[in-house]
Specification:
By secondary structure, the chain is an alpha/beta fold. It folds into two domains: about 110 residues, Oxidized Rhodanese, domain 1 (3-Layer(aba) Sandwich), CATH 3.40.250.10; about 100 residues, Glutaredoxin (3-Layer(aba) Sandwich). Helices cover about 40% and strands about 20% of the residues. It is built from nine helices and eleven strands. A five-stranded parallel sheet has the order 1-6-5-2-4. The protein has a four-stranded mixed sheet with strand order 9-8-10-11, covered by helices on one side. Helix 7 packs across helix 9.
Length: about 220
């Protein structure tokens, strides 16, 4: 493993936890927004929003010889942050593969703040058990592919409104539900028919494929 390639230092949740326990002095950096951090985070983590205007100025004052451990929600922002830290001269950078979603799905400990916001599993099961099919869109406001997918979803659902309805779920606002459903990648679409999952797709999907999927399951 090359010391100058932080992209090679992606660690699984188990590896990340094991490595953290071995180190005496590290910087555990949560690069999500302050709102995300306030909801839940890894113990002893420091929050510096990667997308804030002050990110580069803030990291410039850090000790570049100290090992840095990065994570975000699912791995996208932390990967970009790892590359930036490398460019700025940081010697050792580790990135949690799959982010805090992977960490939570592996049953690792988190500092969590109780919140009434969000959909419970019981609520979710009620919402997807309808006479119409229900298309669930798991997304986040910061997720670029989610933004690309959103107009496609809305157009297809509108064109098939007699047969399907849309349920949009922000994984940041519904972290407990996302954990229980083991949602570790977004955007994620799940189609339900009479309360049963019949199809799912990770990533951006073309309008034609989504349209054909809705029509095909409606005729079954």
């Amino acid at each position: 493993m090359g010391c100058n390639s932080p992209t090679e230092k992606k660690l699984s949740a188990d590896e990340f936890e094991k490595q953290l326990k071995k180190e005496k002095t590290v910087l555990l950096l949560d690069v999500r927004t302050g709102e995300e951090f306030a909801e839940r985070h890894l113990e002893n983590a420091v929050n510096i929003d990667f997308r804030s205007d002050s990110f580069e100025a803030t990291i410039a004052g850090l000790d570049k010889s100290q090992p840095v451990y990065l994570y975000c929600l699912s791995g996208g922002r932390s990967a970009d942050a790892a590359n930036l830290l490398h460019e700025k001269g940081f010697k050792t950078v580790y990135d949690l593969q799959g982010g805090i979603l992977a960490w939570a799905n592996a049953g690792k400990p988190l500092v969590e703040i109780e919140s009434v916001k969000g959909i419970s599993m019981d609520n979710y099961l009620e919402l997807v058990n309808k006479d119409k099919m229900v298309l669930v869109d798991f997304n986040a406001v910061w997720c670029a592919p989610c933004k690309v997918l959103k107009p496609i979803i809305h157009k297809v659902v509108e064109e098939n409104e007699q047969n399907v309805e849309l349920l949009e779920i922000d994984v940041d606002e519904n972290s407990a539900l996302s954990d229980k459903m083991h949602i570790d990648k977004i955007p994620l679409l799940i189609l339900y028919k009479q309360g049963k999952e019949v199809w799912r797709n990770f990533g951006v999907i073309e309008e034609k494929e989504l349209q054909e999927t809705i029509v095909s399951f409606n005729t079954l």
